[in-house]
Specification:
With 283 residues, the protein is an alpha/beta fold. It is 43% helix and 16% strand. It has helices at 18-27, 44-54, 85-100, 102-111, 118-125, 133-142, 149-157, 172-181, 202-212, 226-238, 266-278; strands at residues 3-7, 32-35, 57-68, 71-78, 170-171, 185-188, 216-220, 242-245. Strands 1, 2, 3, 4, 5, 6, 7 and 8 form an eight-stranded mixed β-sheet that branches. Strand 6, helix 9 and strand 7 (216-220) form a beta-alpha-beta unit. Helix 5 (118-125) packs across helix 6 (133-142) and helix 6 packs across helix 7 (149-157). The protein starts with a strand and ends in a 5-residue tail after the last helix. The protein binds adenosine monophosphate, fe (iii) ion (2 copies) and zinc ion. Residues 63, 74, 189-190 line the site of one fe (iii) ion (FE).
Amino acid sequence: MRIDLHTHSRVSDGTDTPTGLVLKALEAGLDVIALTDHDTFDGVPEAVAAGERMGVRVVPGIEMSTDVAGHSVHLLGYGCDMHHPALTQELATVRDGRSRRLPAMCRQLSEAGVPVSLDDITAAAQSARALGRPHVADAMVARGYVADRTEAFDKYLAEGKPGYVARYSTDLARAITLVHEAGGAAVIAHPWSRGNYDVVTASLLESLVAGYGLDGIEVDHEDHDTDTRRLLFEMGARLGLIRTGSSDYHGAGKKGHPLGINLTRKSAFLELVSRIRSRGGTV
Ligand code: AMP
Ligand code: FE
Ligand code: FE
Ligand code: ZN
């Protein structure tokens, strides 16, 4: 069974429609995918319907932008009730904070000599519901300032670079609670990507398991090298965490993350499903 539990559509910062994504999953020989767009469920109904037509099981998911002491940590939520009032309210607040910083980013980019307008960003984002830095990056590519998103982040958009503006994101522990209240299971995405190993420490994980019932961590992810995967796998086992794997596919939006490049073991998936069912979620 080939299971890929972290993918994006163009409803956030991927480049495929939800239907196109499921079609590609079928072509990649996947049996199960989770659609985990950033801070929105809007692509899920279309992806689930496409999955039913094509014989690919689509798990409803989300990737939430969360905060740990000023650092950004991504949390995957699986099987949540997509209409849960507290969760949908919080997601709207996060999306709002994301788009509200765009004028400030435009000003700063202009000062840095690479002007991008709000119209450029909206045009680049097409139908996206969660407007973020990746769409600013696309607008910069369209203007010819940079070759791709990676160069845009490295030179202008990453933390500490001239176009960076901080924004609101949910406290991690609160995000886990919201996912649980909505009936879902909570898994920390790529915990040790981009130097986050001193943010998502063993003791933080331990306290999130003990205090908030964190369900799992993503282990097999392209941001983790072989040693990192081994360490996370062992640490997760010790803490009783479900250990998943995924591509974090973004279509043409992120190179080197093809569908199915990393997979979740069947036993881990079944454990995830049983936790979602026991909380009354949808899977
Ligand atoms: P935002 O939520 O607007 O702050 O943008 C964060 C999103 O940008 C992340 O979820 C990633 O999808 C993407 N991202 C962050 N860093 C990079 C990078 N170096 N290259 C490409 N995409 C990135
Ligand atoms: Fe993304
Ligand atoms: Fe992420
Ligand atoms: Zn992702």
